[in-house]
Amino acid sequence: MRRSRTLTRSTRSRVIALVALLLLLLCLPPVASRAQSDLRITGLSIFLNDFDVTVQGVLLGAVPSDLHESLHSGVPVHVRFMVELWQQRFRNRLIQSRTIDRQLTYNPATKEYKVASTAGEEREPFVTKQLREAQRVVSELRVGKLAPDASLDPRELYFVRLRAAVSLNGVNTWLARFSGEAAETDWVQSPLLTPTRRQ
């Protein structure tokens, strides 16, 4: 009987120590907090012309300094933009969404950076020897023809939401964000618009 109580006490102390360790890990700020805070979307603009809806924006801190070493060792950096057009109602309705994927790679032999679009848009690859130029190209977003203007009701209100994610090798999991190998922005929302009110 004494042995089972001792076993129970030692098991209890191990469980308490494990719970304390888990609570400590949950309370610690993630390693990626600096990269996360540097990553943000600015300059969100919506253009409603006679034919379609066009969205523009810029991702600041598109390649956080924490990822430079991995990039220069040959690991590609992926940037993903998620753009959504919503109709405001009692329950907002998603009209259209588009995902734009870009990849930034570095070639150590030629010392060149290459920005290529991998999904959601068609554009020629951009090659440069300057990291700053590659960051500018990968961070500037222009999404044309998000939705035809004729499909929008002039009496309704619409808004656009934009979000971005940056990751090494395209792996954007909770663990990758915690370890600093990925980061995401919050959703940025435009003001309410109607097809007759231009921004």
Structure description:
- The chain has 199 residues and is an alpha+beta fold.
- The protein has one domain.
- Helix content is 26%, strand content 37%.
- The chain contains five helices and ten strands, in the order ααββαββββαββαββ.
- The strands form two sheets. Strands 3, 4, 5, 6, 8, 9 and 10 form a seven-stranded antiparallel β-sheet that branches.
Short description:
This protein is α+β, with helices and mostly antiparallel strands and 199 residues long. It has 5 helices and 10 strands, in the order ααββαββββαββαββ.
Question: What distance lies between the first and last C-alpha atoms, to the nearest angstrom?
Answer: 78 Å
Unreliable runs? 31-36
Sheet of most strands: 7 strands, antiparallel
Helicity, in percent?
25-40%
